[in-house]
Amino acid sequence: MPEQATDDILHVLRQTWGHTRFRPLQEDIIRAVLAGHDTLALLPTGGGKSICFQVPALAGRDCAWWCRR
Element (H or E) spanning 15, and its range? Predict the structure, then answer.
């Protein structure tokens, strides 16, 4: 992912949630989504899954889906 795109997602994280860094695996998942890869993320309760679909959507890249059963 280009440095500009990394700066964009960190900016979204800071502006929206006030966090300065991602939790473990969040950035990898977000990068995969933004790269256009079909991505399935399995994280524990409280692992920060919602950030993984909200950041790409807020960064203005395509769309993101979240499914919970």
Answer: helix 3-17
